[in-house]
Amino acid sequence: MAWPNLVVMLLQASTGLIETYWVGRLGSDALAGMALVFPPFMLMQMLSVGAMGGGVSSAIARALGAGRRDDADRLAFHGVVLLGAIGLVFSVLMLAFGRPFYRLLGADGGALEAALAYSNVVFAGNVLLWVMNALASAMRGTGDMVVPALVTCFGVALLIPLSPLLIYGYGPLPGFGVAGAGMAIVAFNALGCAYLAWRLASGRAVVRPTRVPIETRFFADIFKVGALASLTSIQTNLIFIVVTALSGKIAGAPALAGYGVGARLEYLLIPLSFGFGAPLVSLVGTHVGAGEIERAKRIAFTGAVFAFAAAETIGLAAAAFPAAWLGIFGSDPAMIEAGSAYLRIAGPAYGFFAFGMALYFASQGAGRLGKPLAVTVVRTAIAIGGAALAAHMGAPLWTMFAAVTLAILVYGSAMGWVTWRADWSRAAAASRGRP
């Protein structure tokens, strides 16, 4: 069940690299602007796919495992309504307050204008991203990982030529600069949303979103997992945002760009973790719904070990050859130096990050996220507190990166412990009733 998501992860990673490569050719301001938008943009993906989307998948998987087929159809409809509304709220907020938000992160001049040009386009179409991922999450909740993966493969095939075409233009088509990269993303989200909606409505999936009167109990079933998971996603992105801002204030735009490009590799571990984690939501949720707690735990740790091995391989390679990654996006010595310092320190800990993320997805499937959320709070406190302390004391840039790395190590280790000790039997009992 994991391989379609892993293929998607590799394709998404390639697309992200290509997009950043083309934007990087526009200059350092465009690259810095994109680095500033990347955390809130990734937050939208993490919330709509892994957090609230995971809540949809978990609720549907537990309903199917407990034999409540009609409720699964209703949950799919409620998931689309709920996620669409959330996506609309974020669109309004970012379009209204994007400029002061990016100023708060230290952007000014050309970097600020580039950030706004990209951000305004991406967030104008944000609701399409949320609805598409609600539909995809409904399918993942049934165990169907292939169709959502194929939709993403289509998106990659579309973005690879469309992104540079819209950035630079060709013939009579004008180039839109960094905004063109955002236009290509919105176009893919629109097409993916239309296809998934058609497939579910046509009865080609296990669940079929049924338009029914809104019932708060279905929202509550999604929210009890998705809301807590959203706090985890927000905290993860808050670390990147704060450290990005502190890097820029301490060492200037080159350091901001260097950390942003280095951290982009860490962001790419999130879809890798999702590759293993999405099946865990469905498998763990179904087994918990059926009362098979011991087997659910074995599934969770098996997936986490695979995620650890894949991410640790990437992290060690990045630590050994940081310039091979950073040199793709620019040649500024200060940028290369800052990014290399980050990857050498944080890269060897990447396996712990993916291990913890995979177990977080497993906890979503079980419908128990209280203790995993507490672990994430500890990680956030260590990373942000350590980075802020280093900045306040005027310590070298690498000390901020060391604080982030310590937080990752604590996160992975503690997540393993709380998952091992978790009592999922109450979730099993609840799943056999109504939400």
Automatic annotation (TrEMBL):
Keywords: Cell membrane, Membrane, Transmembrane, Transmembrane helix, Transport. The chain crosses the membrane at residues 42-64, 76-97, 117-135, 147-170, 176-198, 238-261, 267-288, 300-321, 341-361, 373-391, 397-418. GO terms for cellular component: plasma membrane. It is found in: Cell inner membrane. It is a multi-pass membrane protein. GO terms for molecular function: antiporter activity; xenobiotic transmembrane transporter activity. Pfam families: MatE. NCBIfam families: matE. This is MATE family efflux transporter. The lineage of its organism: Bacteria, Pseudomonadati, Pseudomonadota, Alphaproteobacteria, Hyphomicrobiales.
